[in-house]
């Protein structure tokens, strides 16, 4: 199992106890390996190496478990995006550096594929569950704001609609990369991101 992240765990930035974090990290890996149907309290306990009943002591119902996991995944992604935004602001419009930093993050997400797979599973479930959709919408709005802010800082033509289109493109690139053979993923990400980030930088910065 990959090392547990230390990023902000929830969309509300509330701190997690070590045990709760352990359970949610185990839940993330269960969903990545078995899909959302495989997410049960017992499966989480087994994956975490904890006694049966540990997960239900913290998250009594399956809905509570799924909701907490959605917050955990969205919060981890949001913290990564916030960190990237800080780094991008220091690029001073240098497109090559912006591509390099974004590629580094996306490559890590693809290498640690459990996070992206869990997000995909939860996103599908959110299409049928308004409560989950609201949790994921909060993270997506945060990412759209970051992208829009970067374009504004560079005096690039920007709008919420354009930022949303770019975010959707990022999503598509990431999931397409997961379907590529492992040896071709880095090259695919680099080519795709260069095209998008050139557009983000604007013609004057390309």
From TrEMBL:
**UniProt xrefs under InterPro entries:** Homeodomain-like_sf, HTH_TetR, Tet_transcr_reg_TetR-rel_C_sf, TetR_C_31
Keywords carried by this UniProt record: DNA-binding
What the entry lists under Pfam families is as follows: TetR_C_31
Annotated ranges, domain HTH tetR-type: 17-77
Q: Which part of the chain engages DNA, per the record?
A: 40-59
MF terms from GO for this chain are: DNA binding
Protein's UniProt keywords contain Acetylation: no
Q: What is this protein called?
A: TetR family transcriptional regulator
Give the organism the record lists.
Nocardioides luti
């Amino acid at each position: 199992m990959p090392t547990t992240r230390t990023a902000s765990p929830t969309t509300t930035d509330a701190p997690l106890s070590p045990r709760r974090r352990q359970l949610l990290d185990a839940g993330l890996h269960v969903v990545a390996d078995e899909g959302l149907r495989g997410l049960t309290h017992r499966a989480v306990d087994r994956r975490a190496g904890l006694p049966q009943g540990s997960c239900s002591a913290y998250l009594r119902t399956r809905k509570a478990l799924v909701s907490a996991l959605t917050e955990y995944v969205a919060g981890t992604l949001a913290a990564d995006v916030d960190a990237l935004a800080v780094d991008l602001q220091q690029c001073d419009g240098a497109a090559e550096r912006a591509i390099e930093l974004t590629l580094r993050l996306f490559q890590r997400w693809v290498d640690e594929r459990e996070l992206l797979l869990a997000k995909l599973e939860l996103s599908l479930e959110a299409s049928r569950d308004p409560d989950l959709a609201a949790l994921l919408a909060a993270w997506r709005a945060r990412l759209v704001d970051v992208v829009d802010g970067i374009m504004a800082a560079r005096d690039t033509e920007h709008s919420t609609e354009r930022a949303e289109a770019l975010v959707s493109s990022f999503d598509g690139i990431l999931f397409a990369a997961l379907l590529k053979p492992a040896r071709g993923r880095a090259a695919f990400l680099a080519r795709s991101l260069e095209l998008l980030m050139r557009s983000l930088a604007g013609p004057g910065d390309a």
